[in-house]
Amino acid sequence: MTKQVLLGVVVGIAGKDTLRVKVERETVHPLYQKRMMRSKSFLVHDPDGEARVGDDVEMVSCNPISKRKRYILTKVIK
Question: What is the CATH number for 69?
Answer without folding.
Answer: 2.40.50.140
